[in-house]
Amino acid sequence: MLRLTEIKLPLDHSESALADCILDRLAIEADQLVRYAIYRRGVDARRRSAIAFIYTLDVEVADEPALFKRLANRRHITHTPDMDYRLVATAPPGLTQRPVVIGTGPCGLFAGLVLAQMGFRPLILERGKAVREHTRDTFGLWRKSILNPESNVQFGEGGAGTLARSRTRAFLAARFSPNSSRPAPPPKSSTSANLTSAPSASSAWSNACASRFTPPAEKSVFRAR
Ligand SMILES: Cc1cc2nc3c(=O)[nH]c(=O)nc-3n(C[C@H](O)[C@H](O)[C@H](O)COP(=O)(O)OP(=O)(O)OC[C@H]3O[C@@H](n4cnc5c(N)ncnc54)[C@H](O)[C@@H]3O)c2cc1C
């Protein structure tokens, strides 16, 4: 696979514009392009009047060695690096002891996943509350200045990742909020005008979800100033 970087297109570009750029950059005919995948899409907003997408693409072409030889030393065309993750070990058969992972934050969950994939049957321990109470207690601190020292940003299922802003937070709020329907998601943005308004639409949606939580009084251990 070839990796093409710094492909710049306007925000409202058509889908076919990507393929056209690839053909142009590689100087090939359409029948030589087997497939491509978007590895990364960034937004170049340095000039407000010309906001654009910047793509990094992985491209499969017919007769890649010959093409790469012809394009050798071209800027922004390289081989796609091998980024496959390889498990570093396999659990020996009959292993009776199990590794223990402390905490269900992003690190603990990922460590548990990888250990399980290697066959180690990990035990993951969490000292905080389940995600629903964890989320509710933390919103209690943010919205009503009520701190529960045992259930907050530091302690609780999912770790601080549960409270990460943006859609994760909105998703959890919507997913675990009782007796209410999920609000409509924020509009997708595809123009520069929408891009500037998208964050506020998104946070309004988050707030609409989050505001359904009322921290239960009996869980309030300490009232912060
Ligand atoms: C408000 C907020 C918003 C954030 N937003 C973003 C974002 O938008 N994007 C982003 O990339 N990052 C964000 N972060 C950062 C991100 O959440 C953290 O980098 C990430 O959660 C760290 O993961 P971790 O697993 O190392 O630790 P943590 O997430 O802190 O998880 C630690 C876990 O261990 C548990 N634990 C602690 N002690 C014990 C014990 N003795 N026994 C058992 N369990 C224990 C805790 O209860 C917790 O579940 C945000 C952080 C905060 C606080």
Characterize the overall form. Answer: flat
Question: What's the architecture of the domain at 2-79, going by CATH?
Answer: 2-Layer Sandwich
Question: Structural class of the helix and strand makeup?
Answer: alpha+beta
Low-confidence stretches: 178-225
Largest beta-sheet characterization: 4 strands, antiparallel
Look at the structure and give the CATH class of the domain at 2-79: Alpha Beta
Mean pLDDT: 80
Number of strands: 8
SSE string = EHEEHEEHEHEHHE
CATH topology assignment of the domain at 2-79: Alpha-Beta Plaits
- Approximately how much helix is present in the residues? 25-40%
| Strand order of the biggest β-sheet | 2-3-1-4
Binned strand content: 15-25%
Radius of gyration: 24 Å
Give the bound compounds: flavin-adenine dinucleotide
Measured distance between first and last alpha carbons: 57 Å
Task: Describe the protein in words.
This protein is an alpha+beta fold. It has helices spanning 15-26, 64-70, 106-117, 131-144, 167-176, 192-210, and strands spanning 2-10, 33-44, 52-61, 77-79, 100-102, 123-125, 146-147, 222-223. Among the domains are: 2-79, 2-Layer Sandwich (Alpha-Beta Plaits), CATH 3.30.70; 131-175, no CATH class. The strands form three sheets. It has a four-stranded antiparallel β-sheet. The chain has a two-stranded parallel ribbon with strand order 5-6. A two-stranded antiparallel ribbon has the order 7-8. The longest helix is centred in the C-terminal third of the chain and has 19 residues, at 192-210. It binds flavin-adenine dinucleotide (FAD). The site of flavin-adenine dinucleotide (FAD) has 21 residues, from helix 3.
